[in-house]
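Here is one chain, start to finish.
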Amino acid sequence: MGVLDFLLSNLGEVSELTLQHVELVGVSMILATTVGVPLGILLTRRAALRRWVLGGANIIQTIPSLALFGFLIPVPVMGGIGSRTAIVALTLYALLPIIRNTYAGIRNVDPAVIEAGRGMGMTDQQLLWRVEMPLSLGVILAGIRVATVISVGVATIAAAVGAGGLGMYIFRGVGMVNNQVILAGAIPAAALAVLADFGLGWAERRLAVK
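Its structure:
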C-alpha cells in the first residue's frame, strides 16, 4: 500500500489529526503574537530590557524541542500530559522571531517620519499606532510567518506528550519501522507548513507599506 492509498483509506483519522495539528499551531501562534508583539514594542521603549528579553528567547530556541516538552510536563498549571504542554512549548518557541521582528520593524522606521509626526503634535502612543506600527507591519508579519512555519514542524513532537496531531503517525511509523506511516504524518505536516508560508507571505506583501 502506497502513502496515498494509506491516506485515502484512513481519511477520517488523517483529517482529525490534521485539525488537531492546526488547532495546536493556531492557539500557540495567537498566544505568541499576543505576548511577542507587545514585548517587541516594549524593547523599543526600554532598551535596557533588550538583552534580557531577547537573550531569554534565544536560550529557549537552543533547547531541543523534545527536551522542552519533557521539561514542561512536571511544571504545575502549564505542564501535564496533553495539549496544554504542547501549546506552552510551541508558544515559547514562536516568541523569538516575533519579538525580534517587531523590535526591528519599529526601530527601522525612518526617524524623519517620526519627527514629522512629533512636529504635528502626536503623542508617543499616537506615533506608535498611526505611524510606527503601520510602517513596520510587513516586518512584524514576516516574524509571525517564520514562527508559524517553525511551529508546524515542532508541533509534530506534540504526539510525544499525548497532544495528538500529525506527529502521531510519525511516532507510530517509527515504532513500526514503516516509512509509509511516517510519510502519512510528514507529508500533510509539510503541506501545512507550505500553505502557512504561502498564505502569510501573501498577506505580508499585501500589508507591507510600499
